Amino acid sequence: MAALLELQFDDVQMPDALWIKLIGTVPAILWVAFAATVYFTLRSTIIQRMVPRLTAVRALGVEVELAAELLDRAQNVSQTTVTPLARRTALGRLEHAAELLRGGKILWVDDRPGGIASLVELFRAAAMHVDVAVSTDEATHLLRRTPYDIVISDIDRDGDPQAGIKMLRVLEQYNIDAPVLIYAGYFDPERGVDRRIFAATTVPVDLVHYVIDLMERARLSSL
Question: 117 or 28: whose pLDDT is higher?
């Protein structure tokens, strides 16, 4: 008899237990429905906000991974060391400055263009226009014909240890105001530092930062 009563009691309580469990799942179902509604309502806005970021990543003209490869290749050619943090920082700036760099013009003067090939390719991949000159005379011809945002030059050229510095006098002669970056395997400030030299480095990641800094100035001055 007791067993029978216990069974009947369970039969009575079972529907209530099911209802309690069902009610307990309602908040979770409502949250899922709410999240789905918000997502589909704001989906277009979310995508629109993501597009500039995706464009910045692609604005290098190549995958960011290729930009990293080119930078690493330039680093190996320069035979300089760089920390992983410095490498990531330079690549991050390249990514975020993609629109800033697009359309910028660089004249690179170096009598050994093979040594700068990876960096030239990197900046061209960032949609910059890069001309390479192997002598001061060739550079002068290009500078008088085309306005450049940046001039990058070596120092020792064609056996003249002061060729890069002497080229600055040519810029003054023709009233060319483009800022100059010195990128060379070795730079001794005691040989002479000119006011036109924005910075000098032997390290590719540093050059990336300087180019971005100068393009920021160029864009601001054009506003």
Answer: 117
